[in-house]
Amino acid sequence: MVEVNVKAQTELLVANFKQLDEKQIKLAINNAINRSLMKGRTVARMKVKEEYNIPQRYVNRIEKKNSRPSTLTGFIVASSIPLPMDAFNPQFQTSTSVLSITRRGEQKEKARKKGKVSAGVTIEVHKGSKETIPFAFMIKGAKPRVFARGEYRTGGSYGFVQRHTRENKSGSDLPIKPLLSVTVHAAVINDEVESKIAKEIEVYYPQRLQVELKYQLDKMKGII
Fold it and tell me: Tell me: the pLDDT tens digits for 181-191?
């Protein structure tokens, strides 16, 4: 979790506005915190998009939880729900076509000369770095789009355990599971992104608080 303590900066600036009462000061601090959260959220989204090939609809899961005058505490939060493998430009070759997923999550099919089914699904989680999941496959018209035979572990450990034997002696080799990938939360909570967010807020917050305090003072004097 990104934690930025601005108490010292707040006390220093507030000392110059003794004409304001407690309610006015809290309102100014609250507004400055919420503006700073917007800055921090922008940085978080930008850094995630720089590193990961994540569509905007998933980047928008990085949100801000506003401060209130009664709490003077706000948060930048990111979803901990794993993203479907569909999100990372998957491609899969069937015997007669190439299946892919658009940035909007729509499946596309392009005809190809008849040949072998590809050994796995190619994805691009980190920008510029494609990788192939050898046991994954895609099904035309299905949603979610990327599957594998196996199960996700639960409990103390987490991860996908591939199934190597058939469970049904005939017919479709079911069950299959949709494959998941990184969470937006994991993309944000790392030293580089946390440091960038903290630095941005530490620079922006005192500037914004100065503006908000002056605004309250001008209102009190009837200037605005």
Answer: 888 988 888 88
> In 3-state terms, what secondary structure has residue 92?
strand
Task: Tally Cβ neighbours within 10 Å of residue 119.
Answer: 12
Three-class DSSP labels, 35-90: HHHHHHHHHHHHHHHHHECCCHHHHCCEEEECCCCCCCCCEEEECCCEEEHHHCCC
187 with 52: CB under 8 angstroms?
yes
Token pair of 16, please?
A: 């110059």
CA-to-CA dists, residue 182 to 131, 185, 214, angstroms: 14, 8, 44
According to DSSP, residue 2 is labeled -
Task: Give residue 28's identity as a one-letter amino acid code.
Answer: A
What the block records as the tokens of 160 is 């996908």
| Closest to 149 measured CA to CA, from 120, 124, 175 | 175
- Nearest of 60, 190, 179, 55 to residue 127 by alpha carbon: 55
Phi-psi region of 150 (alpha: psi -120 to 50; beta: other; left: phi over 0): left
pLDDT, tens digit, 9 for 90 and up, residues 62-106: 999 999 999 999 999 999 998 999 999 999 998 899 999 988 888
Q: Percentage of residues in the chain with pLDDT exceeding 90? A: 56
For the entire predicted model, the pTM comes to 0.81
Closest among 76, 41, 82, 37 to 58, alpha carbons compared = 82
What CA–CA distance (Å, rounded) separates 21 from 38? 26
DSSP for residue 173:
-
